[in-house]
């Protein structure tokens, strides 16, 4: 049978499939080496100018903020720090939720004047596009949400400690801001960097722990949502589609952590089964399955 001839029998079909699978497997080392080389090359590049905004925007997005909160969030950081923290305390009490980062979202939603001051600030900084919020911020809200951190000189490395601040009580937060303030009219945003620096490694560690919990909660919530969707819908056509690139990356990580061979799954459904059977994601389920 010529290479381009279609298989005429079941045996020829299976043989052709096996040959194709073997050919793909033979190229895996080459592709893995290429990925490793590209990752090393990427590590030598300087960060994007908006990388700071992206990192710190991700901190506050954990509380449920998105494109609709960009202007109000800008305005919140312009408040004198005693007012800002008092509003966080009031929002936390009103929502009956101990999570201060979700209280930030409530505070931003509770005062339309914050949007007005946020808009004026963005206009004064030349951040608007033809008099409106940058469409790129709408498309990628993390960049817009992170503008106050960027404007106040924070760095990407300070993002974990920024998240750590929102693990504190309002009273402790007030104390830390007061310790670095020179005036009660110092704004929340202007003092943020100094408060983070004063918090040192402990604040950074608190933030990293909180970030890991945030990620685990999102992962479990996504899994539960998908399982509920599957129970409610009989469509299983997705299982016969090619595996997703994300499944491949997660499979590679899982195989390395678990000490098992990388799977050669042919469909999205097979990949999903393999990941579940081998305890993916090991970042959050390290002790579940070996």
Can you offer a commentary on this structure?
This protein is an all-alpha fold and 290 residues long. The chain has 14 helices and no strands. Helix 2 runs parallel beside helix 10, helix 4 crosses helix 5 and helix 13 packs parallel to helix 14. The mean pLDDT is 87.
Helix content: 55-70%
> In what range is the share of β-strand residues?
under 5%
Q: Structural class of the helix and strand makeup?
A: mainly alpha
**Quaternary form:** single chain
Radius of gyration equals 25 Å
Q: Tally the helices: what do you get?
A: 14
Main beta-sheet strand count, sense and barrel state: none
Residue stretches low in confidence (pLDDT < 50, at least 5 long) are none
> What is the number of E strands?
0
Task: Give the topology string: H per helix, E per strand.
Answer: HHHHHHHHHHHHHH
Terminus-to-terminus distance: 45 Å
What keyword list fits this structure?
mainly alpha; 290 residues
Question: Which helices and strands, and how do they pair?
Answer:
Blueprint: H1 10-43, H2 51-61, H3 70-76, H4 81-95, H5 100-109, H6 112-124, H7 135-139, H8 141-145, H9 147-151, H10 159-165, H11 170-180, H12 188-232, H13 245-258, H14 268-277
In short:
By secondary structure, the chain is mainly alpha-helical. It has helices spanning 10-43, 51-61, 70-76, 81-95, 100-109, 112-124, 135-139, 141-145, 147-151, 159-165, 170-180, 188-232, 245-258, 268-277.
